[in-house]
Design brief:
The chain has 202 residues and is an alpha+beta fold. The protein has helices spanning 9-15, 21-31, 41-47, 93-110, 134-154, 157-166, 173-184, 188-197; strands spanning 51-55, 62-68, 83-88, 117-122. Helix 1 crosses helix 4 (93-110), helix 4 packs across helix 5 and helix 7 (173-184) crosses helix 8 (188-197). The longest helix has 21 residues, at 134-154.
Length: 202
């Protein structure tokens, strides 16, 4: 009988709800020996037995996809792997970084050992004036939650606050956002949202 690649116990514990979101981030960072920025999500993925690949997608809005299967799927036959994150090679590193973190969130919360898991990450379908169906709205809420976890992983609270407090740009929000986007390898918009989530006031 075909089997999936091994999943570490700490990820299984996250799936069982043994950690808060913050605790899950701390467990991942601890197990991967990450103590400072940037959080190298490429290495985290590799430690979880993912091949991190790049491709050109037909849908230009697709930033990446994640596969965790018990047999080598057709899309990965040339690589001979069961578990992979495939990135849009045309996107910048900060977007790729967030895509990996987002897919790791799906792996930690939405996959299990008994079914094959596939996720495609793309720009939200929500547009000005466009109504979402109930199913689309539920999917978007789930994707937004995975985005929040991705931000937490790339900008862990303690590391983030420590950096903010020690920066020469501490009192200049726009300059600090630019600085942190480079340090954390994320978009400035993601840094701005993290300021708001953590209640950091300037």
């Amino acid at each position: 009988m075909a089997e999936k690649m091994q999943t570490p116990d700490y990820i299984l514990d996250i799936r069982k709800g043994k950690y808060s979101k913050e605790g899950a981030v701390s467990a991942i960072l601890r197990e991967c020996n990450i103590t400072k920025f940037p959080v190298n999500v490429w290495n985290i993925a590799r430690k979880l037995n993912f091949r991190v690949l790049e491709a050109t997608f037909r849908d230009k809005n697709t930033s990446g996809m994640m596969i965790d299967a018990d047999e080598v799927p057709e899309i990965l036959k040339d690589f001979g792997c069961k578990r992979a994150i495939i990135l849009n090679r045309n996107e910048e590193k900060n977007i790729q970084s967030f895509t990996i973190a987002h897919e790791l969130a799906h792996f930690a919360y939405d996959c299990n050992e008994s079914i094959n898991c596939f996720d495609a990450y793309h720009i939200s379908r929500e547009r000005d004036g466009e109504e979402l169906t109930a199913e689309e709205r539920a999917d978007k809420e789930k994707e937004d939650e995975r985005d929040r976890f991705a931000a937490m992983l790339l900008m862990p609270e303690e590391m983030f606050r420590t950096y903010v407090n020690s920066s020469k740009n501490r009192n200049n929000r726009s300059q600090l956002a630019k600085e942190l986007s480079e340090v954390c390898l994320v978009a400035e918009e993601a840094v701005e949202r993290r300021f708001d989530e953590l209640g950091i006031i300037f």
